[in-house]
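Batch queue: ligand-bound targets. Current item pairs a single chain with glutathione. No template structures supplied; prediction is de novo from sequence plus SMILES. Inputs echoed for audit trail.
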Amino acid sequence: MILYYQTHSPFARKTLVFAHEVGIAGRLEVIHHETSPTLRNARVYAENPLGKVPVLLRPDATPIFDSDVICAYLDTLHDGRKLLPQDGEGRWQALRLQSVAQGLAQTGIALRWELVLLPTDIGRRSRRATTGSKAPSTMRCCLTSVT
Ligand SMILES: N[C@@H](CCC(=O)N[C@@H](CS)C(=O)NCC(=O)O)C(=O)O
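Prediction returned. Tokens below.
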């Protein structure tokens, strides 16, 4: 299987960490693909209509995307303890934690765009606005909620 990946993507990293945790990382060929709202990547768009990584290319099956979907799929490929239990309270605890991870990744990416990547004039206005932004407190709340 091929994983379209981007080293600075928390979503892509989540899938690779998951693969390591369940012991199947050796089955993945990880290929770095640079893609962003300002850099269209045709190879990524060919597999994911949203143009985003991570994407998992499966042999003899359609590609799948979205880190949560990829993690759920990877969890079906091993016989060990499932990281996403099928039922019971363990399932809701795992999905709760997954939501926190997803929220942290989204907030982190949004902050990076606001503070680092936006053109200077927009960025300057944005940085002023960020003083009252809820992003830092979202980060704090998410981290508190898992500790
Ligand atoms: N919900 C998706 C989000 C994936 C995502 O936003 N990936 C970013 C990299 S951090 C991306 O590929 N962005 C390219 C774009 O927005 O065009 C997931 O969990 O996989």
